[in-house]
Amino acid sequence: MCDTTHATPHDAALSAPRPAPGRAVDPITLQPVDEVRVTVLMDNTIDALLVGDEHTIRAGFGPADTAAGQFETGHTAVGLLAEHGFSALVTVRRGNRETVLLFDAGLSPSGLVTNADRLAVDLGSLQGVVLSHGHFDHAGGLGGLAARLGARRMPMVVHPQAWTRRRLHTPQSTFDMPTLSRKALDAEGFEVVERSRPSLLVDGSVLITGEVDRTTDFEHGMPAAHQAWRGDHWEHDPRVIDDQALVVHLRDRGLVVLTGCGHAGVVNIVRHARRLTGVGPLHALLGGFHLTGPAFEPVIAPTVRALQDFAPRLIAPGHCTGWRAQHALAAAMPDAWSASSSGTTHRLVSA
């Protein structure tokens, strides 16, 4: 989703930062939790040889139980899938009570449920779905999830602009992105809740940011090729206004922030979460940072510097972060950086 097409001054103005000094006008009391587990059900990469540690569980190849006649036993191990998409299972524990949410659903109709099955994840335990934004590589697995859930109604939090029709348009080609349909989601059994402002879930212990304030001077959003349909014309859509993140306050540790693509700018997102909650420390930052391609590579260095200042204990970039940014983040924060991979579970526990 990157392009080297130059933006006009009008395009730049659309993505210009807005000042947001001080604390939020309506600060949010985010109830602290005792444990957060983030299981990456789908990511752009899969590495079955990654080694876990006391806070990270890695998925290997799994049992050799898939039929394959070319082997002597007639079976082979298939491991997990990877695709250009993102999905994470978020389990939040307060005391003895656990709540399980799905954050995004990956690219393909079958990828999410396939990996869940191979990880022995019970999708029937889900209590809600959150979409980070309307791009198709974060919503493609919803059909497969609905088929697995059957007649059960599942609440889903989305931004009202998630239904925006979008395309990638360059002088060489045009790609019309699949557009999310509320009517279809209703028919599949999802109870859609539209929120543009911050909202609290799970008895006040999970924050969905809603629209994110753009306050940095280097996170300018999507390049000119990314366009939205405005009813009678296509227009540069730098902001992806429906972009939102999931935030949890890990007791005595700080914020855990999960992004889908981070189209609002990952530094903007962290600033926004801190401002909304009044919680200063950033304990963990996970998800897509969207720093890949020539339009975003100039943003890597200031992003890395800003994230160093936040000093998270864990940083696990995935999906659209890109290999150059991964290398830069790993070099700058070697003790915090963790490789992302389909099947990885990060277990974060309060002090």
TrEMBL record:
Spell out the Gene3D superfamilies in the cross-references: Ribonuclease Z/Hydroxyacylglutathione hydrolase-like
Q: Where is this region: Disordered?
A: 1-26
- Coiled-coil regions listed in the entry: none
Q: Which domain of life is it from?
A: Bacteria
- Gene Ontology MF terms: transferase activity
- Give start and end of each Metallo-beta-lactamase domain: 93-207
One of the Pfam families matching this protein, by short name: Lactamase_B
Spell out the protein name for this chain. Answer: 7,8-dihydropterin-6-yl-methyl-4-(Beta-D-ribofuranosyl)aminobenzene 5'-phosphate synthase
Lineage of the organism:
Bacteria, Bacillati, Actinomycetota, Actinomycetes, Kitasatosporales
